[in-house]
Design brief:
Length: 253
């Protein structure tokens, strides 16, 4: 019995220590979240700017850049370097949802508000209270939803679909787009007042073709990542390969 007791105690100690290590790792990752793998001055300037912007955790930010430039990484870095980092970081792809579903996702709905609303549902604004809401593909947001978002930004209150009760929310809004919003304003697709409210602090991300010095670094990163994933004993990438890529003139898309 004594040996069994010792075995159980050792097992419990191991489990406890493992949980402590996992908690420390999680804390470390949250405080030192990796962002861009880059040595370019352009990205370093962006990261320096983020450290300044993060100190104003209530001001809306608009991140602009082509597809694949890392807009979500920027939003995550802004959140995790601000005093909202202990709060939730919630993401919404505005282009992936139909207009009717989008309002329900953002603001929530009451039971019976529409067909299929069988229970009360909290929206992304309520869920991200005290944290950050990342609105990706903001250029695809319908005009009707833009009007409602204006009220949230100005008054910091929401109303669930099917209800008139005002619910206060404390959320920082970070928007992102790969589209030319000023052109969309001229075309009447984006409201001018809405554009100015989400574009208080603009951040523009340069594409990879404007920072070719990052190609060898990225090649090495993805090589190491795939090496760990595959378990194969691959020695490395020929240096001539990465050097030749840095001399390419990449096309403008």
């Amino acid at each position: 019995l004594d040996s069994l007791k010792i075995t159980i105690e050792n097992a419990l100690d191991t489990i406890r220590l493992r949980k402590e290590v996992q908690a420390l790792q999680k804390k470390h990752l949250k405080e030192h979240i990796p962002c861009f793998i880059s040595e370019s001055n352009a990205i370093q300037d962006v990261m320096d700017f983020i450290r300044t912007v993060a100190k104003s955790p209530d001001t809306p930010v608009l991140v602009q850049g082509e597809t694949g430039t890392g807009k979500e990484l920027i939003a995550g870095a802004l959140h995790h370097n601000s005093n909202r980092k202990e709060g939730p970081f919630v993401k919404v792809n505005c282009a992936a949802l139909h207009e009717n579903l989008l309002e329900s996702e953002l603001f929530g709905h009451e039971k019976g508000a529409f067909t299929g609303a069988s229970a009360l549902k909290k929206g992304r604004f309520e869920i991200s209270d005290q944290g950050t809401l990342f609105l990706d593909e903001i250029g695809d947001l319908p005009l009707s939803t833009q009007v409602k978002l204006l009220r949230v930004i100005e008054d910091k209150i929401i109303e669930r679909v099917g209800d008139s009760q005002s619910i206060p929310v404390d959320v920082r809004i970070i928007s992102a787009t790969n589209r030319n919003l000023t052109r969309l304003v001229d075309e009447g697709v984006i409201r001018k007042d809405f554009y100015f409210r989400i574009n208080v602090i603009p951040i523009n991300l340069p594409p990879l073709r404007e920072r070719l010095e990052d190609i060898p670094l990225l090649a090495e990163f993805f090589f190491r990542k795939n090496q760990l994933k595959s378990g194969k004993n691959i020695q490395g990438i020929n240096n001539d390969t990465t050097v030749s890529y840095t001399h390419l003139t990449l096309p403008t898309i």
